[in-house]
Amino acid sequence: MTSTNAPSIAFLGTGSMGGAILSGLVASGATATSPVIATNRTPEKAAALSKLEGVTGVALNENPEGNREAAAGADIILIGVKPGMVPDLLAEIAPALKPGAIVVSLAAGVTIATFESILPDTAIVVRSMPNTPAVVGRAVTGIAPGTRADAAAMAAVRAVFETVGEVLEVAEDRIDALSTISGSGPAYVFALIEALTAAAIEKGFSPEEADLLVQGTFRGATELLAASDQTPTQLRINVTSPKGTTERALAVMSDAGLDQMFIRATDAALARAKELAAGS
Asked: What pTM was computed for the model?
């Protein structure tokens, strides 16, 4: 986004995901040219938000009209409240939206149809699924167009999310599946780091030594993958000497069904996403 005709942005709800995207935008310098209003319940959180460059925090406990006022002045509105709160929030802001406003969902399980059924016909809806590495500019965000989202609207939304990482445009019927991979994926990685750290401690390393060994290894491996023209499979083979220690360890993981475990885990996450979409 450039300083010329930069869109004004509103974050309605700055919880974990909205806060991650906002933090990434600030770190990227985007808020210096694209003013942001961010709403939250408490004055304390609003004050903290206002300390960020280019951000105005609004406390809803002090200004009950804050969401409506923020939405009225914004070109792009990101909806970051909990899924169950989305319909009431949309009904609240619907009369205030200017024609052509782009409303972006950050809420898991809430469909484009729900958004479009509540908002006016002049509103453009885009559904997104970012992830928390947005805080460090390493997000992977899926975006899906609503029925009124043209190429210009999608480009505007893509520009927002590209300030905090990579963007993949998909049809809405793939968003829930995407959420089980990139949306939940950071938690899977952290769980693996926790498990390997516990193994290092069991081998006699101190917690500090284990953190250095494990976190450094994960960081190095991912940076090697990013810098290499080889596939993860080839890089794994490079480390795995025939009849060596790594081969023996990987055999244990294979016997434990590691690949099938991830299929089952992501299937479970997808089933839960469908439950959320159904309101349960």
From this structure: 0.90
